[in-house]
Amino acid sequence: MQKRWVVKQADNEKVQALQEALKVHPILCKLLVQRGIETYEEARAFFRPGLDALHDPFLMKDMDKAINRIATAIANNERLLIYGDYDVDGTTAVATVYSFFKEFYPNIDYYVPNRYTEGYGISTKGIDYAAEHNFALIIALDCGIKSNDKVDYATQKGIDFIICDHHNPGPEIPAAVAVLDPKRSDCNYPYKELSGCGIGFKLIQAFSMQNGIPPEKAFQYLDLLCLSIGADIVPITGENRILAFHGLQKLNTNPVTGLRHLKEIAGVQKVMDITDVVFILGPRINAAGRIDDAKHAVKLLIAEDIDYGAEANALQLNKYNTERKGLDRSITAHALEIIGADEKLMNRKSTVLFNPGWHKGVIGIVASRLTDTYYRPTIVLTESDGKVTGSARSVKNFDLYEAIYECKDLLIQFGGHKFAAGMTLQPENVEAFSLKFEEVVTGRITEDQLVPELEIDAEIELEDITPKFYSIITQMAPFGPENMKPVFVTRGVTDNGWSKIVKEDHIKFSVKKSRSAVIDGIGFGLAPKFSLVKSSPFDIAYQIDENEWQGNVRLQMMVKDVC
User: Fold this and answer.
1) pLDDT over 80 (residue 547)
2) What's the pLDDT at 137?
3) Residue range 479-483: average pLDDT?
């Protein structure tokens, strides 16, 4: 699919001022200014992210109430239940908070709702479980900000709630003892983009500060927090970047027992970065909740060194992930076949597909695959317990949540955000919903939004690609949303005669420009553009990476597109 190239800009005066302060390549200064870094002090903090720069957790609305209620629970030996969602963010949050308190307070347990019997968020079944087992306080992680009715139900049963969430609140904040969410309009916490596990971390950080517990007791779970930051695709800025930076260090040197076993079983032998977290560890943790029960993931993540079942548990998660990949592939192939055989579906501005036999646990992944293929707002629906349930994914700059909101009269319930959402509806409303969603999308989406965008940070020449230049770029990691690995463009390069198609789909590049040195690269999936590479000077968009072969390390291009 042809991409639309967009070259990002930066204030030239700010770039020049920063270049005078840092005395580095002006292109590097442009990259920093694009990321909001404009002074020497800001650059120093960016390149040396320190845990001492984390914000005071008590700046978060209701944090004092939350800590006081936990202290009361401990003083009175009340039963404490740690409750979290079934995805990576939720399970790492549960593991973090549970493990922290379990070290010194035994009257504690955890609960993760079942995706198939309870659905997302706080469930009536979960509250009933808490009541039956005499829990007096529930700490809800990565969910609960819109669970007003469930909190009220718990109150009727004599159970208090502390909510730790990072999603957008509804019109009314639940009547819990404390509601920690930086996105509350009345919360002045300086950083708004923490993950659900991040809110849980701030809770244990605050408890440590209040009770004279060494900060290292909270920091020992930063590898779990790093996993949540990567898998939940939150911005890698501010506190998230600091936490991810130190979390990666721990993940690579001294991970918690469960992650150590999971790394070994996944065959990880290199130093992991955020991309590895997202594509290697994240899917294996997620697979537990998709295929069976997310409690298996929590059990692994809270394992101690003496837990001889941890390796077997890691093997089980790996097996779930293999099963998940098989379902993902088969359902995606079936969905693509349905679209390809229907001209009306092919020509729509949106995709809505329903099959009652598709596995509920992977429809979100399938929706993402279809979006990658056809690049338009996509909803994949299946049937569960007599209701139709769906998962939606969007394209850049199109507000999916608002489009679904316009169809709310056809839905039982829905939730999510701009880029991803879920919904439930009656089977008889599927066709009407599909037509209404298409109508709303057609009325709102622009032609540009239906073409994938390739953001390019800067234009450089091949001779700019030096070890020193690359070394500074690597120090901008961890990379992720709002701090992506830079993409460069070089105009008018030519093939030096050695570029070729490899493994049918990919191009191995060997290019030069005028009298520059030759530089190699690889472009995955770019084989259809090989004639362009061979026929004329062309523009090439790429990231810079290292290629190691037989002990030799050379810089290369990871090519994103050519034109």
Assistant:
1) yes
2) 98
3) 95
342-450 under CATH 3.10.310.30, yes or no: yes
Q: pTM for the full model? A: 0.92
CA–CA separation, 310 and 320 (whole Å): 15
pLDDT category of residue 415 using cuts at 50, 70 and 90:
confident
CATH number of 4-48+453-562, picked from 3.60.15.10, 2.40.50.460, 3.40.920.10, 3.40.47.10: 2.40.50.460
Tell me how far apart the alpha carbons of residues 259 and 282 are, in angstroms, rounded to a whole number.
Answer: 11
CA–CA distances in Å: residue 371 to residues 319, 419, 454:
27, 11, 15
SS3 of 357-399: CCCHHHHHHHHHHHHHHHCCCEEEEEEECCEEEEEEECCCCCC
Q: Rounded distance, CA 376 to CA 394, Å?
A: 7
- 514: exposed, middle or buried (C-beta count within 10 Å: 0-12, 13-18, 19+)? exposed
State the pairing for strand pair 458-459/488-495: parallel
Which residues are registered as beta bridge partners of 556? 545
Using 50, 70 and 90 to split pLDDT, how confident is the model at 294? very high
Asked if CATH classification 3.90.1640.30 holds for the domain at 57-319, the reply, yes or no, is yes
